[in-house]
Specification:
Belongs to the RecX family. Modulates RecA activity. It comes from Winmispira thermophila (strain ATCC 700085 / DSM 6578 / Z-1203). One of its GO terms (biological process) is regulation of DNA repair. Its main location: cytoplasm. This protein has two domains: 102 residues, Orthogonal Bundle (Arc Repressor Mutant, subunit A); 88 residues, no CATH class. It starts with 15 loop residues before the first strand and ends in a 12-residue tail after the last helix. Helix 3 runs antiparallel to helix 4, helix 5 packs across helix 7 and helix 6 runs antiparallel to helix 7. With 222 residues, it is α+β, with helices and mostly antiparallel strands. The chain contains ten helices and four strands. Strands 3-2-1-4 form a four-stranded antiparallel beta sheet. Strand 2 and strand 3 form a beta hairpin.
Length: 222
């Protein structure tokens, strides 16, 4: 019989013999269980203890497969829990993190679907929070906000819906406050134009924001 792939079920109705359990090279808190038919499964060490699995025990491969799938989900949840407690993440960002940890794509997608259904992962909430933070501290033009969110992997529909919730007056006020801070810091108007242009604000809008400040008129920058 050829060597089976990881997680491939055995056809033996009575089960196969566990011939090896390796901790070295396994993820933290896990061990790799090897069966006599060549298949192998990654399980949590506590699962081995709870299920009484050790070398010399016979076990069906499909049972191990189910345990491995359950344990993989548990490990993903334990990995994500502290992350989601501290920060908001886009679905794509979390997916990338989990795949880099070696979790299977099918399990990753299933877990993220569950987290979205529970409201624990929500691209619209992420978008609204990110826009609010940028508008308050480091404003961007509407087009730059859209591109920034898309680069972060936010779903395009979530980006569109979140931007629609922000009116121009609110975005403009955030930009005005930022420009006023630059003026108070002594930044030249030429540099203000350049800095705001990099943030997606056209020269006409910047000129309008500067109109409230004393000083001579500024030539519109190209």
């Amino acid at each position: 019989m050829g060597t089976r792939r990881r997680g491939e079920a055995s056809s033996s109705p009575s089960g196969d013999l566990i011939v090896g359990i390796e901790k070295e090279g396994a993820p933290p808190g896990c061990a790799v269980v090897h069966l006599a038919d060549g298949s192998f499964f990654c399980l949590l060490r506590r699962t081995l203890r709870e299920e009484g699995l050790e070398v010399g025990v016979r076990v069906r491969a499909d049972r191990l497969s189910n345990l491995a799938a359950r344990d993989e989900r548990t490990r993903m949840e334990e990995y994500l829990e502290p992350l989601l407690r501290r920060h908001l993440y886009t679905r794509r960002h979390l997916r990338t993190k989990l795949l880099r940890k070696g979790f299977s794509s099918s399990q990753v997608d299933a877990l993220l679907d569950t987290l979205e259904a529970r409201g624990m992962v929500d691209d619209r909430v992420y978008s609204r929070t990110w826009i609010e933070l940028r508008t308050r501290k480091s404003p961007l033009g509407r087009g730059a906000l859209r591109q920034g969110l898309l680069r972060k992997g936010v779903d395009p529909q979530a980006v569109r819906a979140s931007l629609d919730e922000w009116d121009e007056a609110t975005l403009r006020e955030g930009a005005r406050q930022y420009v006023m801070r630059l003026v108070r810091q002594g930044v030249s108007r030429e540099r203000i134009f350049a800095r705001m242009a990099r943030r997606g604000f056209g020269p006409a809008k910047v000129r309008h924001l500067l109109e409230e400040e004393p000083g001579e008129d500024v030539e519109e920058q190209g």
